[in-house]
Q: What sequence folds into this?
């Protein structure tokens, strides 16, 4: 029997990014740059490093900038060819050559669960990864998705990346609880979407990295709207967890919440000092 592997990664990117208005009036939040590279490219590079070569992107209205970024720009290539600036395109050229990109539109914003279900036509009947590009992860020795893929090969179930957060911030996240079956690996038995601190089952929060088994689409279809009257992936995963089918993984690395202005600025400062200047 061949070793289980994952080749497709789903990127929900249809949100409005209202915390970054007016910039996100015309620029998708996923295309905001951390130093010299958009958030979405960091996520795609992480997926490629994990051996995934099919990027399925959920877009919304006026999100053409994403598609344009992951296609060759002949005019730009001609302008920089033979100049000192040509090397600036090496990274995106590698991405374009290494992956296939497909797109579909999320017509209405009905929650992350609904966004993932929208991607079913691009994913098909197979396990897949999900990256929320505004959770930017720095893990230079081995990317977070690569770490999760190793775990999937062992357990062959849905996996969510988790990290400890301050108790007074649990209302921002899906929060899990469960039994630690190996160091940093928790078999989940409880999961709550954005609980108040007094209702949180722990301070272990889900961040924007998932590996989901193919049955998640059927589960989402049967999941009623939850918090904020949206279809929450947390609720669908709790259905899987009741059958022992979801693991929480304390990943190795550092995560920046680039969905907030504070986290976005922290990421820019960190990547400038620790990544960009090191390559200069």
A:
């Amino acid at each position: 029997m061949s070793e289980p592997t994952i080749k497709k990664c789903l990127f929900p990117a249809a949100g409005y990014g209202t915390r970054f208005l007016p910039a996100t009036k015309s620029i998708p939040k996923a295309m905001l740059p951390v130093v010299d590279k958009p958030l979405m490219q960091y996520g795609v590079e992480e997926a490629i490093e994990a051996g995934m070569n099919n990027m399925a992107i959920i877009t919304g209205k006026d999100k053409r900038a994403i598609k344009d970024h992951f296609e060759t720009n002949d005019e730009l290539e001609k302008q920089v060819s033979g100049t000192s600036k040509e090397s600036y395109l090496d990274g995106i050229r590698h991405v374009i050559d290494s992956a296939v990109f497909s797109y579909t539109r999320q017509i209405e914003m009905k929650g992350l669960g609904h966004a993932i279900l929208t991607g079913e036509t691009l994913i098909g009947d197979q396990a897949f990864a999900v990256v929320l590009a505004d959770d930017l992860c720095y893990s230079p020795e081995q990317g977070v998705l690569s770490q999760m893929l190793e775990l999937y090969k062992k357990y062959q179930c849905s996996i969510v990346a988790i990290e400890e957060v301050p108790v007074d911030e649990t209302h921002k996240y899906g929060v899990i609880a469960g039994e630690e079956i190996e160091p940093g690996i928790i078999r989940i038995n409880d999961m709550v979407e954005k609980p108040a601190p007094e209702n949180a089952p722990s301070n272990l929060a889900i961040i924007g990295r998932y590996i989901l088994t193919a049955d998640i689409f059927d589960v989402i279809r049967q999941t009623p709207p939850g918090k904020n009257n949206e279809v929450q992936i947390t609720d669908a995963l709790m259905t899987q967890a009741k059958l022992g089918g979801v693991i929480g993984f304390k990943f190795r690395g550092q995560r920046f919440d680039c969905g907030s202005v504070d986290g976005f600025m922290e990421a820019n400062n960190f990547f400038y000092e620790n990544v960009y200047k090191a390559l200069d």
User: Anything to note?
Assistant: The chain has ten helices and 13 strands. The radius of gyration is 19 Å. Residues 8-157+206-220+236-279 form a domain with the Spore Coat Polysaccharide Biosynthesis Protein SpsA; Chain A fold (CATH 3.90.550.10). The first helix runs from residue 39 to 49.
